[in-house]
Design a protein that fits this description.
By secondary structure, the chain is α/β, with parallel strands linked by helices. The chain is 48% helix and 21% strand. It is built from seven helices and seven strands, in the order E-E-E-H-H-E-H-H-E-H-E-H-H-E. It has helices spanning 24-36, 38-42, 58-63, 70-97, 111-121, 136-142, 145-152, and strands spanning 2-3, 6-7, 14-19, 44-52, 102-108, 126-130, 157-160. A five-stranded parallel β-sheet has the order 5-4-3-6-7, sandwiched between helices. Strands 1-2 form a two-stranded antiparallel ribbon. Helix 5 (111-121) runs parallel beside helix 7 (145-152). The protein is globular, with a radius of gyration of 19 Å. The termini are far apart.
Amino acid sequence: MEEGGSTVREEKKKKVMVAIDESECSFYALEWALNHLYNSLLNSEILLFTGQPIADYSYIYASSFGVTSPELITSIQENQRKVTNALLKKAKDVCGQHGIVAETMTQVGDPKETICEAAEKLHVNLLVLGSHNKGAIQRAFLGSVSNYCVHNAKCPVLVVRRTS
């Protein structure tokens, strides 16, 4: 665009996705980003994301000798949705306390995979994650969402680790 002989460039807002779960470390990462990246976040599109693990209902079938009503499964799924919505609302409220407007999104599946898929699909410019501070042996056997995302996300990843 030309205006009075000078070029005016319209900047596209950057997208920052913060992955949230029920852990303290994910909310610590959110707070850290809000405190340390505040000026950048003011001019960015903020997305709070949580991956809902696929529920394993086999224990219900086993405990009910294979006779489980569809209503029970529906009730459990509805409860999971309520917990997820409350988690995202809490994170959105934290952003609001800092004067940051954020959108929320959730997806069902393996959290580490859904985080990377959503970041790619939404063309995220920065992915922020908390670290559970697992040791090397725990990471080897249990896996690490942050480690997976660092190696598989198609955008820069900021892993925030609590130092104290």
